[in-house]
Specification:
This protein is α+β, with helices and mostly antiparallel strands and 341 residues long. The protein has ten helices and 17 strands. It has three domains: 88 residues, Rossmann fold; 153 residues, 2-Layer Sandwich (D-amino Acid Aminotransferase, Chain A, domain 1), CATH 3.30.470; 65 residues, Dna Ligase, domain 1. Strands 9, 10, 11, 12, 13, 14, 15, 16 and 17 form a nine-stranded mixed β-sheet that branches. Strands 3-2-1-4 form a four-stranded parallel β-sheet, sandwiched between helices. β11 and β12 form a beta hairpin. The two termini are 36 Å apart.
Amino acid sequence: MITDILYSPLSAKATKIMLLGAGELGKEVIIEAMRLGFFTIAVDRYDGAPGQQVAHRSYTGNLKDPEFLRSVIEREKPEYIVPEIEGINLDVLFDLEKEGFNIIPNARATYTAMNRERIREAIVRTGVPVSEYYYVGSLKELEEKCKKAGFPCWVKAIQDSSGSGSSRVNSPKDISAAYEKAKKEARGSADKLIVEKNIDFDLEVTELVVRHFVDGKIKTSFCHPIGQYQTRGGDYHSSWQTAEISEEAEKKVYEYAKKITDSLGGVGVFGCELFVKGNAVWANECSARPHDTGMVTIASHQVGFSEAALHVRAITGLPIPTQKRLGYDVIPMITPAATHV
């Protein structure tokens, strides 16, 4: 859906963007949408969420409650519905999309990216390399698969938030604690966990992929790769742009990220996480929305072209300038930058 005419955000003809989840990333998206002339609506489960503090209008309620979710969307009838968190009733999103509402990037991509098993299998179907992995449903299975993967390995919940539910297992004595952590911190069902073979990578990178309209067709553009560091618990610690990787690895990052996001479809910013060792690259995960580590683009990109601004531009059809690099369309930086929490 491309926005051709923008009316005053407080007028009856205003173009509305609704954020489902209004955390810090959502707040940045709302600010950029307001700057570009859109009417913004922030919906979250608690009052005073960061995005609610700046949006034109806000609602508070359980986003997993189908009646609440449907009621606010039908009341506002936004042109763009932008999921920003995992805790959303996905059945309602699928139904609303069938009824003509515009889910960003689309309901299927949102559904796929919110679950480790679904996004891992989607990546595998593209032919992009991933680490060796196994699914388990019991402590006994976990012990067997950890032994098969070798130590160290990783045990993760199938669905979690911001790295919770993940553990590095260095030896058999760590397995039980990893199992309990994954079960306790999982979002939704914890009947199944994933075991991943450890990759001794040089660097983990985030590749922000921007799928946007140009002349009525979807074009894929890329931000320069972002280096990132996470704590042992999986929490975001720091990120910097651009990542120190070889040109051959950089080309693979773009190639693999494009394959993954092509399979998800839709428009907007996607955050693909990949491991790099020398010239070798493996995919880890991909979010169907901007990424915590991409906040560095507030400093490294021109004003109005941070990841949040790119997300708004991409979903509404506004122009995004790029330059050719290594055969790919890349969004220019104005300076190297780094962030840390």
